[in-house]
Each structure stands twice: as C-alpha cells, then as structure tokens.
Write a structure and sequence with these properties.
Helices cover about 15% and strands about 45% of the residues. With about 160 residues, it is mainly beta. The strands form three sheets. The protein has a seven-stranded antiparallel sheet. It has a three-stranded antiparallel sheet with strand order 1-11-12, with no helix packed on it. A two-stranded antiparallel ribbon has the order 7-8.
Length: about 160
C-alpha cells in the first residue's frame, strides 16, 4: 500500500522513513583538527564530476562535528565494506572515535582508514546551502579502490550488497 503525504516540520519521521527507502552505501568522512582526528558518518555521498574530479557529501549544519569539517581544508571519504558496520557505529557515536581506531595520515594530514572499498582524499572545493544541511564539494586529489562487498543502509538498517 502506498502512503502519500505532504512533508511537515511537525512530522519529520514520515519524511525520514520515505528518504530511507533509497538504499545507499555508507561512508565515513575524516579530517584533522586542533582537537585531533575527527570522523562523521554520511550516506549522503555521491560522485559529482570526472573533470575536474569532484565528489560531494552533505553534513548537518547543526551537528557539533560539522564546524570541524567546515574549517578543514582537506578531508577524506571512506566507502565502507560489508564487514565495517562496527566501525560505522563507533564513528557515528563519537566524533573522536579515531583516537581508538587504527588509522594513518595522508600527505595533507587527513586520517585514512584501512580496508575500505574506496577512499577519496579531497581538498575543499565549494559549499552550498541546503536547508538544515550543507553540501560539501571536494576535489579528489588521490583515490584508492579495493575488492569486496558494500555496506548498505536501507530503511534504518544496515545490509550488504554482494557482487554476483
């Protein structure tokens, strides 16, 4: 049965549920800061352009974490594999989770997580206002790719996309 509705600020749950019907991959975005390495989970990630090489993700402007990313000149986006749900939970609960998670730093000092399906080391390119979020556009300086199955998010739950 289909439920049709008009989005309303007093009922954001229904709209959130409708948005959740779009299956997405899961990413962790990292940057360095004066308070150490910072992480945030984001499923609002997309490739944007091949020439120049651009990606985008959206961050909640009201999040206590977002100012770190707004100030950071560089950030990295990590596309998670199916066995990285625990890493995702850790980063979603704690902006400073990388203090207790194995990582290395790239040339520009951005934290890099191991064992991801893909990783994009980026330089800030543009910001665009988007309601309660900000669209962050990054220019890809370096990328990595690996084999594996993807961690997915659908209807508020994690799943797995396996290749045939």
């Amino acid at each position: 049965m289909t439920h049709t509705f008009v989005p309303h600020k007093d009922d954001t749950r229904t709209l959130r549920d409708a948005f959740g019907r779009f299956a997405t991959g899961v990413t962790i975005v990292t940057c360095n800061s004066e308070d150490g390495p910072i992480c945030i989970t984001a499923n609002s990630f997309s490739s944007l352009s091949l020439d120049p090489p651009l990606i985008m993700w959206a961050g909640d402007r009201n999040s206590r974490r977002f100012p770190y990313f707004h100030r950071a000149r560089h950030f990295s986006v990590h596309v998670l594999s199916s066995d990285q749900a625990e890493l995702c939970f850790g980063c979603s609960k704690d902006a400073h989770a990388l203090r207790n998670i194995d990582h290395e730093l790239c040339e520009n000092g951005t934290p890099l997580l191991p064992d991801c399906l893909a990783r994009f080391e980026c330089e800030q390119h543009a910001y665009h206002d988007a309601g309660d979020h900000v669209i962050v556009v990054g220019r890809v300086l370096r990328a990595s790719i690996a084999e594996g199955d993807a961690l997915t998010f659908f209807a508020g739950k994690f799943g797995q996309f396996a290749q045939k």
